[in-house]
Known about the structure:
Blueprint: H1 2-24, H2 26-36, H3 39-42, H4 44-53, E1 56-61, H5 67-81, E2 90-94, H6 97-110, E3 119-123, E4 126-128, E5 135-139, H7 140-149, E6 158-161, H8 169-181, E7 189-194, H9 199-205, E8 211-214, E9 221-224, H10 226-232, H11 248-257, H12 263-276, H13 295-313, E10 318-322, H14 326-338, E11 348-353, H15 359-366, E12 374-379, H16 382-385, E13 392-397, E14 400-401, E15 418-419, H17 422-430, E16 438-442, H18 446-449, H19 459-462, H20 466-474, H21 480-484, H22 493-505, H23 517-523, H24 529-540, H25 544-555, H26 567-578, H27 583-599, H28 603-610, H29 614-633, H30 651-662, E17 667-671, E18 676-680, E19 686-690, H31 697-705, E20 709-711
Parallel strand pairs: 1-7, 1-8, 2-5, 2-6, 3-5, 6-7, 9-16, 10-12, 10-13, 11-12, 13-16
Antiparallel strand pairs: 3-4, 14-15, 17-18, 18-19, 19-20
Helix pairs in contact: 5-6, 11-12, 12-13, 20-23, 23-24, 24-25, 24-30, 25-27, 25-29, 26-27, 27-28
Bound molecules: adenosine-5'-diphosphate and magnesium ion (MG).
Amino acid sequence: KAVVEKICWQISLQMRDQQQARQELPEGRKMLEFRSNLPAYKERETILSVISKNQVVVISGETGCGKTTQIPQFILESEIESVRGAACNIICTQPRRISAMSVSERVAFERGEKLGESVGYKVRLEGMKGRDTHLLFCTTGILLRRLLADRNLKGVTHVIVDEIHERGMNEDFLLIVLKELLPHRPELKLILMSATLDAELFSSYFNGAPIVTIPGSTHPVRTLFLENILEMTGYQLTPSNQIDDYGQERAWKMNKQAPRKRKSQIVSTVEDAIRSADFKEYSLQTQESLSCWNPDCIGFNLIEYLLCDICNNKRPGAVLVFMTGWDDISSLKEKLQTHTVLGDPKRVLLLTCHGSMASSEQKLIFEEPEDGVRKIVLATNIAETSITIDDVVFVLDCGKAKETSYDALNNTPCLLPTWISKASAHQRRGRAGRVQPGECYHLYPRCVYQTFAEYQLPEILRTPLQSLCLQIKSLRLGSISDFLSRALQSPEILAVQNAVEYLKIIGALDENENLTVLGRYLTMLPMEPKLGKMLILGAIFNCLDPILTIVAGLSVRDPFLTPLDKKDLAEAAKAQFSGAYSDHLALVRAYKGWKDAEIDLRGYEYCWKNFLSFQSMKAIDALRREFIGLVTDIGLVDSNTTTCDTWSYDVNLIRAVVCYGLYPGTCSVVHNEKSFALKTMEDGQVLLYSLCPIQCCFCLVEAYQKEMLIIT
Length: 712
Ligand code: ADP
Ligand code: MG
């Protein structure tokens, strides 16, 4: 033991010397100067001292004050300075893989090192971590997985849970587990970091843990709501009966001519933008004049208009546009680029910021563009708190958010766009005042804003709990309902019962709430259980290829487009794919056709002709690749086989697999000791018939192999 301690001491000494040497270098000094200007840096000593005296500490501060990049670094530096470097092992969790990767890279850079030396990261299927890594950024999911193998987090000295204000399902789950671990690991430190002011909630959950607040400084932001924006142009919202139908085409042409600031022209542009909006019925009827108001469409046209105005008439400064989701972002980007709405393309740096962007693209976001070039970032709510772009002066906020289709992989089912909370709107507005006074355009009326909830409901209270229940079981945390009753905010008992009941019906849990074989496989697939089950069935019934397309299709926006003015043509195009069969099979054919067309680079044309969304097709393609990786990972497909090997187009088989995956949604099961039948709910048609009893989907396969299963 003494020998080990001595070696440890020597390594720690070395680490201290190296750290000091790097800080003395000119780059080191420059970096230190930058860091010492961050609000978090001014609290460095307080933070370190509170951490040393308490097991749990809550730290809150405005976004951009330096929590994520600085606090883990303070701890690492201070451990190294006190010659404990070799023994320290800090884990900092991030809700998203993209932030785990980008933050680790940034922190390594600030320390003057390469990624994978003292700072590393780990996300699902990827990581950069070396023998000497003492600060690891990882997704919350990765830490949960580690807990599965090592309940006491042996060797870990600090756990930092970042962005807890987001109240993601995984974070809430992790907090329950950590709270129970703390008494068993008295020397383990837990640091919770949050952006908004609900720090009290977390503090009281951890028995009154101390809160350190980092004072922030932001500049004033001029705030405009939809009515103010329209007023600027002399326009007012009009009631529906005065609006006649204009085509999208017309508004588009007007927009293109908009840049010159001739009052009357701008007025007619906005007017057209609003008229061309597809005035679908809108449920939030706050005022008569808004009854016809469709935020999705208005938002889109108005964004183009405002971007034009900013590019041509406003002072320098980057523009950050908060959009609903990834598909909106990519279609707006495409539109702006192909039609050069914003004038000279050389003077505009158009970037996107979302959960699945490449890290090369991410670096550009932080860089300051050349003089005279306007940086425009189209972002999802990821830019609300986890990514800070310093030079933003203008913010456009569409007021909505949804988990992007890619998040289907991160355990969140595909959600519809919903209004954000007042807290989020405040955050978005704050992004405009980082370095100088800014302007924020909310693309919705103030009266709509007033209906927003104060805070977004925590994920654990608003989304289905099925995946969470499976995770609780796989971590062997006892009874699901007992466990969840110890959460920061417990979900309703009924919601828990429903989830458990559902898992029993689909055969993921047995009567005693234990994981079945299917359940165990499902815990390894980070997606909704019904989708996971479909993939598993697809793999074992050898029809994975079409099932991959269907599951991916269920996770993205409907790829079949129906423009109002060409409804008949669009329906005819779709019918040609579906034939006598369902939408699912139509999608399989459409995707296959698109894929073939892509080989000759004619995918876009193919989509255009067949009323398909090119963006959705691309998203399906990317998701398929992810899914095949997952299914291969858990050993259901041999990694040497290509998808084509499991390419069965037995229509009846595909239909049976899809239906059984969606069960109990679309079909019913009739079974006894001797037989098993799967029937469609609609007309009672038999899809599957087995001559032996079936308990789970693996028994189905057995029956299939013994030729005791008849697919009709
Ligand atoms: P917080 O977690 O409190 O929101 P961060 O630690 O993420 O703040 O960021 C602090 C500051 O560090 C930001 O304002 C920004 O100036 C800078 N920063 C963060 N990440 C990067 C990066 N990848 N590249 C350049 N600057 C960055
Ligand atoms: Mg942060």
